[in-house]
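Progress against Task 2.4 (sequence-to-structure conversion) is shown through the following example record, which the project officer requested during the mid-term review.
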Amino acid sequence: MNRKPIKYSKLKDIESELNRIILTNKGKFPTARDLRSMGREDLVGAIYRNYGGFVKIKKEMDYPLYKKGPRAKFNYQSKEEIELYIRKHHFKQSITMIAKNNLSLYRALHRENLVDYLISQGILVSRKKIRGKELLIFEEARSIMEKHELKELPSQRGITKLGYSKLANKISTLPGGYREFRRRFGEKQKRIPDGLWQDLDFTLERATEVMHKYNFDKFPGEYKLRKLGLYPLFTAINRYHGGFPRFREILNERLGISSEQNKLENLLDSYNLKDIQN
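Structure tokens generated for the chain above:
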């Protein structure tokens, strides 16, 4: 004889069935979507039909209700303050992601007409051109930059040296390869013509540009250049120009820095390299 289906007209019947489902659902009260995925349209219908929805049935069962708190308003004094906040908390994110997670900040960006500017500077990215597989690779690259505190996306060789050869291979399989990926990532192309890094004057000029760009009083060591993602520069110094002590000596002579200070910088640099190797 076929069992007659329960219509769940009584609270105790619904409560009993929901408690059974909660036990098999790791203690979580099921949503309407959860019940439908289990094929329990009958139970969903009974809850809405007899008790007006899931909030009311939770109250009847003395089940705790969780409410989202009010969203914090983003307060700022200037455009510069917004830019600093974006660099610190939302660097390389899309405007769509910011709108989803921080509506107040999203409105402030549009109010001050900063969206196009921040995208052009590579601080934010436009997600209109990024889809599917490329989006996943994009998010992986951004998380690596945050983990290693990098301000710029490293070269393909630099990513491999950091231990992410799989990511480097994924990028190379995309249409246009690494060069096109960097462009979509919102960064300037860094391709240097072959042979230029072997030229000492060219390398000295690039080193001086780095000092001006990052407001360094002295030329940083290999450890700092790695953190900044400047792999071609420190590779050229080690491969073509006698290593950091010799290169810094030449650079400091050009900049008029004393030799005693140069010795101290080389000593500190050697300690940083030991820390990396250990």
